[in-house]
Amino acid sequence: MIRTRKPFALLHTGLxxxxxxxxxxxxxxxxxxxxxxxxxxxxxHPEAILAQPDSTDFSRITTEKEATAFLLRSLARHYTSRxxxxxxxxxxxxxxxxxxxxxxxxxxxxxxxxxxxxxxxxNTAEEIAAIEQxxxxxxxADDPVWKSISTIT
Length: 153
What we know:
By secondary structure, this protein is mostly helical. The chain has eight helices and no strands. The longest helix is centred in the first third of the chain and has 20 residues, at 6-25.
């Protein structure tokens, strides 16, 4: 009698697929310490960010590095001048990049700016959508700061 290895191969393949699925579903957001440090600096001294050479003159944002640079400079400009609002299309591109790389803090900050920009445009539907996305993301990431903000609003 010849034994076939087919059941073992199927079982082995099934286990690998199951482990892959569990890893993909269980992917958690990770804190980006370097970004959080930049946000702390930004919140206390936005002028320090603005004093650096402007490297954010992108016609289109295509990388995480460009998206982060654009976001930080936009936040600094918004903090120092409440009349500044970044381009909505670039913010949306940043959000897409951050979401694809599970950069929760960057995405939350970009959603904040997007909501502010939509508010300035009197676009209540998009403003509410950005706030709701931020609240859901904060809940998923179990972010205590953003969750507390969402309970206030």
